[in-house]
Amino acid sequence: MTSTAIASLHRGKYRIHTVAEMTGVPAATLRAWERRYGVPVPARTSSAYRVYSDADIALIRRVVELCEGGLAPSEAARVALEEHVPQAHTPVEPGDPYAPLRESILQAIEAFDPRRLERELDRAAASGPPATVAEDVLRRVLLEVGERWHTGRVTVAQEHLASEAIGTVLRRMLTQVQPEGDARMVLLAGFADEEHEFPLQVLAVHLASWGLRVVQLGVRTPPAALRQAVAELQPALVGLSCTIAPAAHRARELVDAYADAIGDVPWIVGGAATSTLARFVSGRGGQIVEDPQPRALRSQVERMCSRRKPRR
Amino acid sequence: MTSTAIASLHRGKYRIHTVAEMTGVPAATLRAWERRYGVPVPARTSSAYRVYSDADIALIRRVVELCEGGLAPSEAARVALEEHVPQAHTPVEPGDPYAPLRESILQAIEAFDPRRLERELDRAAASGPPATVAEDVLRRVLLEVGERWHTGRVTVAQEHLASEAIGTVLRRMLTQVQPEGDARMVLLAGFADEEHEFPLQVLAVHLASWGLRVVQLGVRTPPAALRQAVAELQPALVGLSCTIAPAAHRARELVDAYADAIGDVPWIVGGAATSTLARFVSGRGGQIVEDPQPRALRSQVERMCSRRKPRR
DNA sequence: TATCATTGGACCAACCTTTGACAAATCGCG
DNA sequence: CGCGATTTGTCAAAGGTTGGTCCAATGATA
C-alpha cells in the first residue's frame, strides 16, 4: 500500500521480519541466503540485529524474480549480485590511491583464489591510466610477491598463479595502449640469460602510453636476433632488460655483442642487474635506466628518440 | 510480460528440470540426447550439475520442431547442430578454410612486420570459434614456424616476434572463452623442465570452450607447487604438458612426483614427449592425450571429469 | 515478561548425477 | 510378410548436492 511507497523514499531501515513480510521470503530463508550466497549482506545494529536497506530489498526482490524465471537460487543470487554490484567505486585519498588495490590483489594471491585474483586485477586495470596501474599496482605487487616468496610467506604455487594472471593483464593492457598509425617504434628485448618477462612488460606499457609503438621480442633474445630485428625494423629506440647479473667477463661480452647488434640506434638498459653492466653499457653509448621514476625516464627517452632519425 | 524481458536480460542458466518444463522434453530424454548426439552439451557447475544456456534451449526447441516435422531424432540433431554452430559460416570448400589465414600470418612473420602480424592475428581471432582458431590457425602456425626455424627459413628474431604476438592473442582468447559461474575447474601446468607455453595455452582454450574453468600455473611448475595448488583448489581435472622428453630415469621420477602431488584427481598428460612418459603415466592412473583431435579429447575429458567426486 | 534477534548446526525432501538396462518403435532385407 | 538389428524413450539403482526449514541456547527490545 502507500506506506511501502513512502518507506521506499527514505533510506529504509527494516528489520528482518518486516523484510520477510515485504518480500514474501521467510526470515529463515533470508538468513540462509545471506549465509550461503551473500545476498544481501545487510548492515547491523550494535547488538548485531540485521538492518536491511532499500537496496538490500531490491536485491532480494530481484532474486525472487529470477527464481520465478526458472533459475536455481544459487544462480539467481550470482546473477543478481553481478547486476547490482558494478556501481562505481570511489577513488580514494591522494596519498597512495593504489594501496588498497594492491592489498586486495595480494590477499587474493595469498588466499590462492584465481577467480578473485582475476576479478581484482580487472578492477585494477580499469582503475586508472594503464601506465600508472602497471607501475603502481602490478609492478609493486610483483615486487611484494617476490619478497614474500623469499621469506616463505608466498609459495611457488602462489607465485606461479600470480605470474600467469598478471602476465595476462599486462599483455592486455599493452595492446590497449599501443598507439595506432605510424608512431616511432621501440624494440624491447630481454638479455640472453634473462628469465623475467615482467620488467619488459611494464616498460612496454610505459613506452606505449607515451606514444611509442612497442615491438616485443621477449626474454632471452640473443644478440644476433636483435641485430636482425634492428636491421629490419629500424626502431627509434632499443630497450634491453637484465635482471640477473652475469659474471663480469660474460657481462662485457654480452653488452659488446648487443651494442654491435644495435649499431647506432639509441638504446637503454634497465633491470636489477644494471649496476653490474653500467660501465660497459655507457662505454658503448647506451643509457642506463635505473630510476624507476617514469617521469625522469620519459624525458630521457624522449631526448634519445629524437636524437636520431631512422633513415630509409 | 516481465518474465520474458527478464529472461532475455541475463544469459539463461537453467537446471535440467526447468529446461524440461520449458521445452516439453523430459529430463531423461535431454540427458539421452546429450549422451547420444551431443545436442546440446550444457555447461556444468563444479558439482557436475548441467546448466543450460538460452542457446542450448533454442537448440533443443529446434530439434523438437524438426522431430515434429517427421525427422528421426538422430537426423534432427545433426541438422540442428549444423544450423546452429557455423553461424558466421564461410561458404568455402570443405578442405581447409583456415589455410589462407595461416598463410598470411606466416607471410607477416617472414616479412618481419609486427604491425601486419598483429592485424592478421586479430583477424584470425575473430574468424571463428576460439578453440578452432587456436587449433587450426595458431597451433599450426607455431608448428610451421618451428619447422621453418629448423630449416633456417625463419630466424630466431622472427620466431621471438611470432611467439610474443601469438602468446598475447592466445591469452586474450582464453579470457574470452573462460566460463563464468562455478564451473568445474581444471588446473594446467607445464612439467618442471618445460619451456614451451603454447601447448598449454592451446589446451587451455579448448578446455575453457568446453565449459571448464581453466586455472593456469604455467610452465616449469614443480611437483610441490602443483601439490599445493591441487590441495587448495580441488580441481576436477589436472592437465600437464611435456614437450621435451627427460631421460628415462628422470622421467619416471618426475611422473611419480606429479602423480603423488595430484593424488586421486583425474589427470591427463599431453605434449610431444608423451610417448616417453606413457608407461609411467598410465602406471600411475594418468591418461595420455596424444590425439590432437579435439573431439576425441573432449569426450575423454568429459568422462574423466565426472568420474570422481571433487571432494576433499 | 513476552516477543523478537542472533548463531551454528542439523535435517530432509527434492533434485541432480551416472551407469546400465529394457521394451517399443522403426528399419533393412530376404 | 516376417525376422533380426538398430534406434530411441524411459526407468531404476546408488549416491552426491541443494536449499528451505527448524532447533537450542542466548541476547536484545519493548
**Average pLDDT rating of chain A:** 88
Count of individual helical segments of chain A: 14
Instruction: Give the neighbour order of strands across the main sheet of chain A.
Output: 4-3-5-6-7
**Which structural category do the helix and sheet elements of chain A fall into?**
alpha/beta
How many domains, in number, for the residues of chain A? 3
| CATH fold type of the largest domain in chain A | Rossmann fold
Describe the 3D structure.
Two copies of one chain form a homodimer. By secondary structure, chain A is of the alpha/beta class. Helices cover 58% and strands 9% of the residues of chain A. The first copy, chain A, contains 14 helices and seven strands. In chain A, the strands form two sheets. In chain A, strands 4-3-5-6-7 form a five-stranded parallel β-sheet, sandwiched between helices. In chain A, strands 1-2 form a two-stranded antiparallel ribbon. In chain A, helix 6 runs antiparallel to helix 7 (114-125), helix 8 runs antiparallel to helix 10 (198-209) and helix 12 packs across helix 13. The radius of gyration of chain A is 27 Å and the shape is elongated. Chain A starts with a helix and ends in a 5-residue tail after the last helix. At the A-B interface, helix 4, helix 5, helix 9, strand 4 and helix 11 of A face helix 1, helix 2, helix 7, helix 9 and strand 4 of B. The structure holds a DNA duplex (30 and 30 nucleotides).
